[in-house]
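Supplementary Text 2. Reproducibility record for the structural model of the 136-residue chain.

All settings were left at their defaults, and a single model was retained for analysis rather than an ensemble. We include the record here because the model underlies the residue-level annotations in Supplementary Table 4.
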Amino acid sequence: MGMADFYLKINFKKQNYDEFETIYQSFINESIFRILDKKVESNFLSLECKFDNLIPSIIIAFNNLYPFKDNIDSIETHGIVKDFIFTSVEEFLDYVFSINKNQLLSYYKQMGYLAIDSEKYYNRRIKLKKYYKKLK
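Retained model, structure tokens:
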């Protein structure tokens, strides 16, 4: 069984190939995303994200999308579409989390989560350091 995922579908207002390609490349360069669908002619891009990387995924997605907010019509996750009127990463995180909350909690109940004893946290984190990636 693979990691549980959620998706983000970005709908663009108008066809602007250069801008679309810039956004596409910004997500290709991030290993925590998988491109599900890319339709330049239909003006949308769909991304797959993993619940285990929920917060970093949302931060990176918002930082990649916000500079192009004037050309983004809406964003969809779990079948719910909302206009892209987010002004902060907190608003965007709240939107994605609230829509996917039940699936996320079900995932944690079924599969569990990464729990490190707080007293041994730094020792264990050092051992896992090669898996950590800093946000830009």
